[in-house]
User: Fold these one by one.
Assistant:
Number 1:
Amino acid sequence: MGTKVGLWIDHREAHIMAITDKNEELGLVISKVEKQPRRDEDSRHAGPYEAMQVQADDSRQRARTGHLNTYYDSIIASIHNAESILVFGPGEAKDELVKRILGTDLGKRVEAVEAADRMTDHQIASKIREHFAEKNAARNVN
C-alpha cells in the first residue's frame, strides 16, 4: 500500500493525515489569510479623507488571493507523494484546492471531495481511516 492522504481544509488551516503500511502522520498547515476584510461600521464618519485611509477593495482581494495561492501550494507540496487523496471540509477552500491539484500530476490521485463541518483532530483522523478502510474492503471484494 502506498501513501494515502486525507485532508480537512478551510481558508485558515489544513489538517493533513498521511497513512502508510507502517504508520500514520498528522500535520497542520496554517494559512496567513485573514478573513475577508470589511470596512468598519463607523468608517463613513471618519472624515473627508476616509477613502485614502482604507485600502481599495481590489487590492485587498489581490493580496488575499496571493496568500491563498501560497497556502494551497504549500499543501500540495506536503502531499506530493500521495497515492490517493481525500479532501473534505466546509466552504469553498476544498474546491479551490482540488482545482489547483487537478492542474498538477496529483490530479489523477484525488479519490473524493466531500463537504464536512468543523472537526476535531480525532474526528478528522477517524474519517480518513474509515474512508480508506472502506476503499480497501471494496477492492478486496472485487
Number 2:
Amino acid sequence: MILWTLGHWGVGVSWIIVSVYYYGNIGYVASTITYLIFLFLILLFAVAPLVLFKREQKQDLSLNSLLFISSAFIIIELTRDFFFGGFPWLIPGTVLLDTKLSQIIPLIGAGGASFIIYFISSLIARYWQTSKLRALLIFIFASFLLIEQSSQPIKDYDDSITVRLVQSSLDPKIKQLNKNRSLIEETLIKLSKENSELVDLIIWPEAELPYAYQSKEYIALKQKFEQKPKLITGIWHFDDNSLFNALVNVNNDEIYQKRHLVPFGEYIPFKKALNPILSYFGAPISDISPGEDNQELISLNSKYKIAPLICYDIVFGNDVRKTVKSSNFIINISNDAWFGRSLGPYQHLEISRIRALENNKWLVRATNDGFSAVIDNKGTIVDFLDKGIQGSLDSNISTKNSPTIYALYGYYVPYLFAIFYTIFSLGRFLWLKHRVF
C-alpha cells in the first residue's frame, strides 16, 4: 500500500516541483525539497489511517468488510478537502470519464465514482486470496466497463452565445518587469479585437494583467471595452489592505475573489515551520488572501448568469456545485503556466470536465498557456488550444440546462452512506467484542 501511495502521489503531484520553481523562483533544488516535504506529509496522511484496516485483512473478507474499507477510503478522500487548506487532487473517480460508467457521475459525482472503484478493487483483492480465477474474471469485467468510449460534442442547441477564449502564451516571468506591461496588454487586445463584433463575450486568463483593479491602467482598459463584446478577465484586487486574486467583468465592475488558494503557490501551509526554510532559499513568501464564500454570480446581461471560478476553485466539487446551481454556464480562468510541461495541465483539464458533467453545465476555461477549452455539459471537449499555443478560440455554447441529481443532493449520498456505514461497522465490532467477553 505504501508503494502504491508513493507511485500515485509521488508521480501525480510531481508538478509541485515545477510550480514552486516558477512561483517561488528559488531553483529546482529548493523546489524539490519543498516537494519532498509535501509528499512526506501526504504519505503520513494517506497511510496512517490504514492501520484501521489491519483487522480487516482476513483470508476471506466479507461483504461487510468490503463496504467498510470502501467507505473508510472515501471518508479519507473527503477529509482532503480540508487538509493543507484543501487538496482534493487525484480523485480516483475521475478515471470514469469517457467510459461506460461515466453516466453515474451526474448522479453521485466523482466521490461516488471513487466508492465504486474502491469497492471493485477490494472485491478483486478478496478473491485474489481465495480464487484467482474469480479475481481475474472480476478484473476483466471491470476493465470492460472502463474501456474508453468516444462521445460526439453537442452541435445543435438552443439559446446559445458566442465566447472567445484568449490564450497569450507569454513567459510568466516577463510580468516582473514594468517595461513589459504594454506588451502583455497589447498581445491580449490584439488576440481579442479581430472580428470581435461576432462574439458576445471575451475571456482573458487568470492574473494575466500586470496591474490591479481600479488602477489607471485598468480604467484605460475599461474604456476600450465600453460596448460589445463584453470582457471578463483575471486581475489583482487590493481591498482593505488585503491582496486578492480576482476575476472582473470589465463592463460593469462585478468582481469575484478566488476562494481556494494553491498551497505553496499562493499561501504556505504550516507557515511557522516552512517559512524559515523558504526564506533561507530566498523564496518570496506569498501573502494572498482568500475570498469569502457565497459570492455573487457574474452577470453577462439581464438574461445570463455566469458562475466564476479561478484556477484551484474548480477542484472543490461541493463548492462548485453550490456556486453554479443557479448559473447558465461556468467560467474557469487559470494560470496554468506555472505547471510548466508537467502533468498538472492535463489533470486540471480533466477536473474541469468532471465539474461540467456533474452539474450539467457548459464550462469554458481560459488559461495563459494551455489548455484553454470549451467543454459541453456532458464533459466532452468541444474545442481547445494546446499547450504553448498563442491564439484565440471562438465557440458557441449553450446556456440552457437543468440541475442534475448530483447538483440537488447526490453529492451527499456516497459520503453519508460511508459515514453511517463506518459508524455501524465500528459499533458492530465493539458489540461483538463485548459479547465475546
Number 3:
Amino acid sequence: MINIDIIKKTFCIYPYNDIFRVSITYKKQRYSKIFETEEECNNYIKNIVGDEEYNKRNFEAFNYNFKKYIQDNNLLTEKQNQIWKKICEKYKGCGPNKSRKSHIEKIKTITLFDIYNILERNNWTCYYSKLNFDINISYLSPSIERIDSQLGYIKDNCVIVLEFCQNLKNAYSLQEFKRCIISISTGIIQEDDDETIKNNLIGGGKKKGSKKWKQIDLSKPLRMTKIEYYIYEILKNTNEYISRIEITNLILTKYNLELSKGGLQFALNKMLKNKYVIVDKNHTIFKYKLETSNNIKKINKDINITCGFCKNKFNILEFRARDARGNNVGKNLNLFHTVCTDCNTSYTNKYKNKDIETFILRQISGRTMKKGNLTKENIKKIKGIDGKCVITGMPLIANNNTGKFNQASPDRIDNNNGYNIDNIRIICLALNFAKNNYNISDDTILNIIKNIYYNISNINTK
C-alpha cells in the first residue's frame, strides 16, 4: 500500500540552499521570490492565483507526482503498466464538463491515487465482470465508469470496467443495469421499480432539468379567456386604478372591440377571485389595478393541478404550456395542457407507435444519412420484427418513453452501411448501446453478460 504522505502536493516551489524559491506564471505574468519556509511559499502563491486556482493546481501537481512515483519505482508489471497508461488517458477526459445526457456538471475530484487503489482492489480486472482487460481489443479496454450517472467523477462513485460494460450500463441506474443482466442471463424479465428508473434512464423518459419544454409564464394570469386577455393587456401598462368604463373604452380604442357590461364584469370578477386583480372600493365607482408580476408569480407557483389521465396532483410547472386555438390564435392566454408531462409523453408515443414496425420506422426516419432501403412494405422481413431480441430472445417493448433495457432498437449488422433490409435486425436498446461500433460477436456479448451475472452479488447498488 502506497503511503499518500510521500507524494508531493505542492507546485512551483523549488528547494534552494536550505531555502525555497517560488517561480510561477499566472495570466501571462511571471512571479518569482525566495522564502525560508514552504508555508510562506504557499501563502505567496495563494495571494497571486486565489484559492480556487491554487487548489486546482495542487490537484494536478499531486496527480503528476503520483504518476512519476509509479514510474520511478517500477511498481507495475508490463501488463498493468499498459492498463495504467490507458486509464491515465481516459482520466484526462473525465470532467469537469456538461454531460450530454443528464446536463449536469461531471465534477472530477477523484485522484489518480484513488484510481490506482480501485485497480488494486479488483486485481486489475473489470469491476462488473471480473474479466481481464485487453488494450488491443477496444471493447475489452479499461474505462472509468461512474456508478451513479447523476454524480461526477468522485471517490466511491467510480470503478474501472470494460468499455463494453460502460456502454451497456450507459446512463442507467445501477438497479436497472442489474435488472438487465439478470433478465438476459435467466431468460426471465425481472420486475422493475418504476420510482427508481423514472428519471434516470437512456432511451426516453423525462429527466428533470434535461429538457426545457415550453412552460407557462408564472408572472401572468393563468388560462385567460379572450376578455381576460384584453383586460390584462390594458392593466399591465398602468400602475393606476382605472374604472370598468375606462377599461372598456381602452379596449375599444386599442383593439376595436366593444365588450358588454356583463361580459367585462364577469371576467373582472374571475380575475379578482384568483387574486390577479386588486379593486379599490373607496369610490362610488369601483376601480381596478393588476397585481404586480411578483405577487402573481407567488400565487401561481403554489397551484396544484390534477392530471386528466393519472388523476395525481402535480405542481403547475409539471404541465406544458399550449398555444391558443381557433379565433384566439396569436393571443398569449397562458394556457396549459391538463395532462402531466409524463402522461402526455407516454400517451403521445403510445398513439404514434401502434406496433413495432411503426416504432422502428420512426426511429430510422430521422437518420437520413443512414436511412437505407427499409420501408413499411419490406420491414416484416427483418429479424426481430416479431418482438424478440435477436441476440437474447428477450421480448421487446415498442415505446420510446420507457427508458428500459429491452426497448426495441434497430441494429445495423455492418455499421459502415445504412439501414438496408439485409443489414438490419432488432435487438435490446441496452445491447445496441453496448455494441457501439465494435466488431464484436453475439456470443462474446452473451459471455461478458454471463460473467457480470456471476459477479452480480458483489456489485454494490448505490
